[in-house]
Amino acid sequence: MGCSDSTYCLGIESTADDFSVGIISLKGRVLANIISAYINPDGGIHPREASRHHTEVAGKVLSKALQKAKIKPEEISVVAFSQGPGLGPCLRTGATAARALASYLNVPLVGVNHCVAHIEIGKLVAEAEDPVTLYVSGGNTIVSAFDGGKYRVFGETLDIAVGNCLDVFAREAGLRQKEGIPFGAMVENLAGCSHKFISLPYSVKGMDLSFSGLLTASVQLLKERKHPVEDLCFSLQEVAFSMLAEVTERALAHTEKPEVLLTGGVAANKRLQLMIKSVAQEHNARFCVVPKEYALDNGAMIAWTGILAYQHNLTIPIEKSFVKLKWRLDDMYVPWVES
Amino acid sequence: MLIKKGAEANLYLEDWHNRKVILKRRLSKEYRITEIDKTIRSQRTIHEPQIIHKAKEAGVPTPTIYVIDIPDATIIMEFIEGKQIKQILGNLSPEERRNLCRHIGNLIAHLHTHGIIHGDLTTSNMILTPNGKVVFVDFGLSEHSTELETRGVDLHLMKRAFQSSHFKYAKECFDAVMEGYSNFVGKDATEDILEKIREIERRGRYVSER
Predict the structure, then answer these.
(1) Which backbone phi and psi does A299 adopt, to 5 degrees?
(2) Which member of A99, A302, B63, B142 lies 3.0 to 4.6 Å from A11 by CB, making a disulfide possible if both were Cys?
(3) B33–A contact, CB cutoff 8 A
């Protein structure tokens, strides 16, 4: 570790439908970030099929990342992997690859919390220091901020994630998933064609959110065929995002943090960006949105968090590196963050 | 005069027909479309006084509501003279503190038994009046529920409030609250709710201050 910045961490991400390898330096220079997505045209993720995809592409993604980074495997100082939360078969695939690599290279292994990684890479690339983070994806919906040694959860979904809500609606509407165009983007495009609001259930409970009732109601209206799908997409987005904005605002008012960080797959939505930006401005906080490459599940975020943890000796022996399917954001000790 | 700017509403201390009143206004939010904005603000402006009224029926002192202005999303209510429990708890003798907390626990039990969940039980939302009454204010996050889970969450919040603002005597305060609670709902029901609170803590979900 010196000024040369030649300590590298290789991170493997495989919690859900993406298998990704990222390589990053001690100072946060991203050398490679290769993502391979498992796409089910019918939508949804079949854990077994996704993990089969991960197994098939693991070798290729790994060598592509090393090529892109222009480093030899021996130059890697530490290997990190997303240890949870996520789908069991998918997590185990990534963990197996990471263990093999760490033991072959004889370097330390670090288990990283996927949600913490989203926040850390967001802070790095969007240059935030101490934000309230809204992390919205297909699997997670969390409002969090750092307090007393951990990222605390101020609000979260009580049932399904907001991305899941949009995806399932899109699938019920008969949309088909294509490479490069996720369901969320299709819903966003359709929503852009409408300004007609149809009333849907709005469910915020204190700091927490619920999306299942909203989804059921939207799908029911869809099946009644009385409203154009554009109007339903518009209304669904407006309600879901207003709920997110309200909870974010409450966390911001409570913590008085100087920044809001928006990340996760749903962060790409322009309407959501606009709403969260408005909330931030209201409280004189800086609005930071994570660029898509680092907002989606990616290996670079695992590598970066791995390097932070590694510097605080948070490595794990291989025989104790079990995956943690339900590892909570607020259960990972983050000693590198200043109180 | 603005006295509190919250995430959802602003509180003003005003003079209204020679009375000191609290004016609670739910502000329009720029980020959401008019249809949603109007619905949320009016629904909550209707809901909060209803629950405040229901709490009175349950025997729990709450502010008197004077005006409900739905289009303006404003509630005008009695200003409660007195001190926040938060300000005085540290100045009491252990005996007085225990009695006060037992009384608070008893009031919470009244709310719960009548299907009311306060949703924001902190020592800043309870006021001790000069004649010794404890008045519960701010029902902005309240809801109707009789579920053990929501009751547990409500009391867990109270426990968290003691731990964050009154950590020196958090345990004795919360124990006294539960003693008062138990005096009203009985031992078995209290045991169930304490077990629920332990479960909530094990889940580690409500770790942040809220």
Answers:
(1) -75, -30
(2) A302
(3) yes
Annotated active-site residue B138? The verdict is no
Global pTM value: 0.88
> What is the residue whose two structure tokens read 């969260």?
A276
pLDDT, mean over chain A: 94
Tell whether B167 is within 8 A of chain A (Cβ). Answer: no
Question: What residues form DSSP beta bridges with A9?
Answer: A24, A78
For A148, the closest chain B residue by CA position comes to: B208
User: Taking the C-alpha atoms of B91, B95, B101 and B106 in order, what is their torsion angle to the nearest 10 degrees?
Assistant: -150
Per-residue tokens: B65:
């509501």
- Could you give the number of structural domains in chain B? 2
User: For residue A256, what are its two tokens?
Assistant: 């008085």
Q: Which residues are CB-neighbours of B89 under 8 A, at least 6 positions away? A: B97, B100, B123, B166, B169, B173
Token pair recorded at residue A261: 């960080």
| Contacts A282 to B, Cβ<8 Å | 30
Distance of CA A64 to the CA centre of its chain: 22
Q: In chain B, whose CA is at the least distance from the CA of A147?
A: B208
Cβ separation of B208 and A239 shorter than 8 Å? Answer: no
Q: How many other CB atoms are there within 10 angstroms of residue A246's CB atom?
A: 23
Strands (E), B123-193: 126-128, 134-136, 143-144
Chain A CB contacts of B143 under 8 Å are 205
Q: Are residues B59 and B94 in the same domain?
A: no
Shortest Cα–Cα distance, A208 to chain B (Å): 10
Q: Within this chain, do residues B100 and B53 fall inside the same structural domain, yes or no?
A: no
ipTM of the complex: 0.87
C-beta separation of A314 from A110 below 8 A? yes
The answer to the question of residue B180 being in a domain is yes
- Characterize B76-97 residue by residue with b for buried, 16 or more Cβ atoms within 10 angstroms of its Cβ, and e for exposed: bbbbbebebbbebbeeeeeeeb
* A140-196: pLDDT as tens digits: 999 999 987 889 888 899 889 999 999 999 999 998 877 778 899 999 999 999 999
